[in-house]
């Protein structure tokens, strides 16, 4: 298996709610069992109790609208004739307040406006959400605030408006620098327009402009990808995200490939493209700090790192995903949450209840460790001893992976390292992470079952309470909407 290069957890996609199996191949956030939220106005304002530091977390507001459907995209996005922006803005603000209060959040560490196409929102809307975050919790002056921008809605004037609103980092969806490829992808912009958008972004957000590129397009040759990379290197700032195109069922591009109108990219070519990119970017001074993310001069995205480090985050807006402890309900257990995907329904729910949480599931300690492992191994730092210890104070990393089993075999084969820093992939292992994870997860589950079989005596972790990670035992969702 090839490592899925698409690992941005907050990116929500149509039909993704309630998937029961972990999405290993995509490297998406763990999709735990998500039970529908039943009833309305159930549990009311129980003051926050339980252990733990005052929560700091990341905020992920979603703008679900786009101007056009790209041929490859299965995100949760909507193309509508008109958007009632004032109403959407009011709902984003209200839901952000509700969920920040529910999480008893003291400080927002970073904000990432995703979508859809958030650069279609007005700077006024972006400012309103940031103000709500700053009022409901502290938003430090230096906190990373990123906005995803489509080159079609990234004029210098708009970008300046976003900067004035509080955005300090841009992620520009360039995708390709070849007009024929952009047409194949159904993009609205040309390569020249993408270049102009990146140049404008770099002028306004120097050192803090990232670009997204896709590779593995049907019919794309190794040489065409190498040309694209070279052009991108001449254009980019200090951060790039390279995503291998996933042919998503239900998209126009996937249909054309399935029907034989376009060729499916061969696996060995995809592998070759990925290795080429890694080598080219390394030579240009970029550090591959995650399967698909590259930075130089320390320009790593702290927001994205917070997903891969399994920190808490709140998703706001249609289809947004979150992982946080609803301390405000008296809980001390981390939950996976998904907001209602359809914007109109979501707005009605927010207007009636203060938030549009569609599904929620308490994550068991084992599920949290699985998530920590699958996400942490995507980064070059891996799962550190310290972080593992926070989630699993009584069952050390070495007790799980330092004993004969899959992890040891993978170390001997040169894919994995376990040392005083923690567990991480070698550069070779990072490229094939998806093939390593199933064995590692099995080893974790076996170890967990064994130690749980002792009644938690050896580990304490199976039944342990007291941290957000090891705070509960049930995977059942509780009914009832949280307090507004
Ligand atoms: C929400 S989109 C970006 C923002 C904006 N809507 C745009 O398209 O410019 C986030 C990123 O996901 C990536 N993406 C979307 N669909 C993908 C797919 N099927 N396979 C791989 N990457 C994908 C694209 O690179 C895109 O820039
Ligand atoms: S603009 Fe972005 S979110 Fe919208 S359809 Fe295209 S890739 Fe998807």
TrEMBL record:
InterPro entries: Coproporphyrinogen-III_oxidase, Elp3/MiaA/NifB-like_rSAM, HemN_C, HemW-like, rSAM, rSAM_horseshoe, rSAM_sf. Residues 454-466 have a biased composition (Gly residues). Its main location: mitochondrion. It comes from the Eukaryota. CDD domains: Radical_SAM. Residues 49-287 form the Radical SAM core domain. GO terms for cellular component: mitochondrion. Pfam families: HemN_C, Radical_SAM. It is found in: Mitochondrion. PANTHER family: COPROPORPHYRINIGEN III OXIDASE (PTHR13932), RADICAL S-ADENOSYL METHIONINE DOMAIN-CONTAINING PROTEIN 1, MITOCHONDRIAL (PTHR13932:SF5). NCBIfam families: hemN_rel. Belongs to the anaerobic coproporphyrinogen-III oxidase family. HemW subfamily. This is Radical S-adenosyl methionine domain-containing protein. It comes from Anser cygnoides (Swan goose). The lineage of its organism: Eukaryota, Metazoa, Chordata, Craniata, Vertebrata.
């Amino acid at each position: 298996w090839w490592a899925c290069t698409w690992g941005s957890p907050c990116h929500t996609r149509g039909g993704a709610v309630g998937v029961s199996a972990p999405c290993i191949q995509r490297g998406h956030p763990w999709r735990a069992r998500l039970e529908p939220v039943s009833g309305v106005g159930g549990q009311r304002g129980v003051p926050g109790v339980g252990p733990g530091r005052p929560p700091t977390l990341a905020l992920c507001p979603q703008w679900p609208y786009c101007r056009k459907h790209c041929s490859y995209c299965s995100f949760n996005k909507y193309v509508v004739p008109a958007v009632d922006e004032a109403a959407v803005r009011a709902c984003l603000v209200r839901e952000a307040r509700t969920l920040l209060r529910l999480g008893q959040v003291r400080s927002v560490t970073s904000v990432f406006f995703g979508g859809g196409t958030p650069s279609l929102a007005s700077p006024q809307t972006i400012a309103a959400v940031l103000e709500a975050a700053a009022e409901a919790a502290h938003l430090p002056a230096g906190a990373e605030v990123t906005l995803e921008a489509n080159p079609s809605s990234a004029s210098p004037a708009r970008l300046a408006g976003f900067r004035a609103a509080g955005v300090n980092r841009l992620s520009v969806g360039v995708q390709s620098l070849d007009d024929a490829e952009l047409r194949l992808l159904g993009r609205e912009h040309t390569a020249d327009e993408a270049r102009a958008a990146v140049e404008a972004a770099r002028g306004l957000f120097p050192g803090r402009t990232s670009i997204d590129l896709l590779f593995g397009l049907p019919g794309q040759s190794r040489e065409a990808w190498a040309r694209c990379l070279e052009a991108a290197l001449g254009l980019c700032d200090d951060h790039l995200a390279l995503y291998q195109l996933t042919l998503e069922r239900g998209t126009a591009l996937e249909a054309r490939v399935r029907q034989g109108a376009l060729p499916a990219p061969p696996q060995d070519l995809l592998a070759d493209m990925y290795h080429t990119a890694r080598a080219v970017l390394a030579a240009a001074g970029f550090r591959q700090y995650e399967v698909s993310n590259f930075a130089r001069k320390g320009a790593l995205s702290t927001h994205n790192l917070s997903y891969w480090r399994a920190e808490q985050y709140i998703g706001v807006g249609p289809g947004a995903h979150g992982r946080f402890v609803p301390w405000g309900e008296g809980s001390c257990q981390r939950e996976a949450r998904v907001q209602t995907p359809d914007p109109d329904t979501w707005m009605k729910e927010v207007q009636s209840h203060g938030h549009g949480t569609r599904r929620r599931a308490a994550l068991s300690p084992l599920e949290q460790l699985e998530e920590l492992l699958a996400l942490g191994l995507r980064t070059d730092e891996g799962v550190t001893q310290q972080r593992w210890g926070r989630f699993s104070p009584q069952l050390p990393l070495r007790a799980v992976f330092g004993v004969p089993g899959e992890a040891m075999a993978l170390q001997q084969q040169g894919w994995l390292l376990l040392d005083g820093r923690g567990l991480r992939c070698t550069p070779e292992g990072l490229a094939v992470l998806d093939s390593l994870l199933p064995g590692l997860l099995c080893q974790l589950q076996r170890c967990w079952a064994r130690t749980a079989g002792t009644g938690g005596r050896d580990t304490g972790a199976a039944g342990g309470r007291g941290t957000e990670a090891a705070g509960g035992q049930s995977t059942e969702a509780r009914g009832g909407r949280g307090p507004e």
